[in-house]
Amino acid sequence: MNILQESHLTIAPSGHLPSLRQPVVARLLRLGAYLMTMLSILVFFAISPLVLAKVGINYETAGGSPLEKMHPGTLLAMLALVLRLASSGAPLKLLRHLLTNRIGLFLFAGSYLVATVYTVLFLKVPFTPMVDTFLLPIIFALLLQDLDERAARLLAMVLGLVLCANAFIALAEYLLNWRLVTFNLPEGVTGDPSRTDLVFDWRAALELEWRATALLGHPLQNGLIISSFILILASPGAGWIPNIVRLPLLLIELASMVTFGSRVSLILTILFGSLLLVRRFAIFLARRERVSRNVAIAAVLCVPVFAGFCAYLAEAGFFDRLIERFGSDAGSAATRVTMFEMFRPISFYDLLFGPDQALIATWQRIEGLEFGIESFWVGMPLIYGAIISAVIFAGLACFCHALVKMSGRGTALVLLTFFLTASTSASLSGKTPALGMETVMILLFLRKDGFRRSSALDRPLHESGRVKEFGKQFHAIS
Question: pLDDT tens digits, residue range 178-202?
Fold first, then answer.
């Protein structure tokens, strides 16, 4: 739908046409919704929890109002959805249409509602973490699912520029030993988890590390988002992006992955990225298409230059700290084994319906898990109980199915990478906008209407000219 598209005039119950000013108001509301959506995306990808803490917003710290516990981008997205629904003149009818248009969205929204009600009424724990983690993807899916091509391309271009800036800032932090956002260590707070006499804070721990934080904040959050973005750029559904833009952006984002030190993200990116590259090469061989002389010359020149540049970076020590991190994980693997000890003091009844969070917090300190339970598959039953966790997981599966249907080819692989990476950290069991940000990237860059501009290698094999010609000949013979 065009953001300024005329709304259809309908007959009022009185039999009179509505005011001619109504379409003007509707267009302004749709424009406001679009601008709020753009601003929300910018805030999410440019303002991290580190920045919020720096300016005094208690997003992840104790104290503050319930509104402070939600990311400002979430509030802007909510406002955008309200404006979008109000522009129709029948907000509830439009909301029902948007949800039921994709049954997966409806089921995920239902699972979120059930989990929220149960959390508030029975578990007596804050519900605000679930807003950023699970409600936000639904809101962005509702806002972006019927966006027209021009409006989506503008949002994609803005988001691409922000992620490109994030990569350059990360490289600058890594190479210059500089921080975009510094953490002022208050008295009584430490970044050393072994200091039991002080209060541990993960932001203070980051000050002791070399890993970059850039715009997205925590290095693991950077790795989670950027690895997905790299695979999105390499996917067939992103074929509408000109190669002169896509290839340099891919290289910059790949280089920035070194600065985040996210081992799982980097391994999965290289693995699935290689699979996509092999797929493209196999399709090229199957079609037996000719390559222009300029492309052949560019490939012959670029491959050795790229290999030589990587060798130079290795010789200069660019990869040294990352390689050292692979060799010494600072107890990260042991932490992922220890987290299963958290189930030991919990009864079967509490495991099903949700354990006492004071007990979980105490046992977490005893086991030395200051950084959190580093797998959301384990963390969620320890917070919400196994039954509600199963409801949420089922809703997530429905949402992912709807997302695959709403977007272009490559979405399933991107989502698989996202959940495999998220499985190695607290991620979805805590408060994170990661899934909402993933939804934005998928719906903007892997759009089905982008197929019209995709290259020959990005189109399915059955759409190639040779196969179509063979089909015509076969039908003529038969």
Answer: 999 887 766 666 666 666 666 666 6
Sign of CA dihedral 203, 204, 209, 215: positive
The Cα–Cα gap between 395 and 109 comes to: 8
* Domain assignment of residue 9, yes or no: no
Q: Let me know how many helices (H) and strands (E) the chain has, helices first.
A: 22, 2
Return the residue matching tokens 């997530």.
396
Tokens, residue 449 = 């209407």
Distance CA 330, CA 370 (A): 13
Orientation of helix 243-260 relative to helix 263-287, angle to 10°: 150
Query: Would residue 3 count as lying in a domain?
Result: no
Query: 419-464, pLDDT tens digit by residue?
Result: 999 998 888 988 999 999 999 999 999 977 654 544 444 555 444 4
End-to-end CA distance of the chain: 42
Pair of tokens at residue 163: 């992620």
Residue 185 lies in a domain: yes
**Domain extent for 280:** 22-477
At residue 147's C-alpha, the angle toward residues 146 and 150, to 5°, is 145
Q: Is residue 264 part of a domain?
A: yes
Among 411, 435, 440, smallest CA distance to 421 is for: 435
Q: Which residues contact 172 (CB under 8 A, 6 or more apart)?
A: 178
| Domain total of the chain | 1
Question: Cα–Cα distance between 365 and 356 in angstroms, integer?
Answer: 15
Q: Give me the phi and psi of 199, to 5 degrees please.
A: -85, 125
DSSP secondary structure string, 376-403? Answer: HHHHHHHHH-HHHHHHHHHHHHHHHHHH
What is the b/e burial string over 19-42, where b = at least 16 CB atoms within 10 angstroms of the residue's CB? eeeebeebbebbebbbebbbbbbb
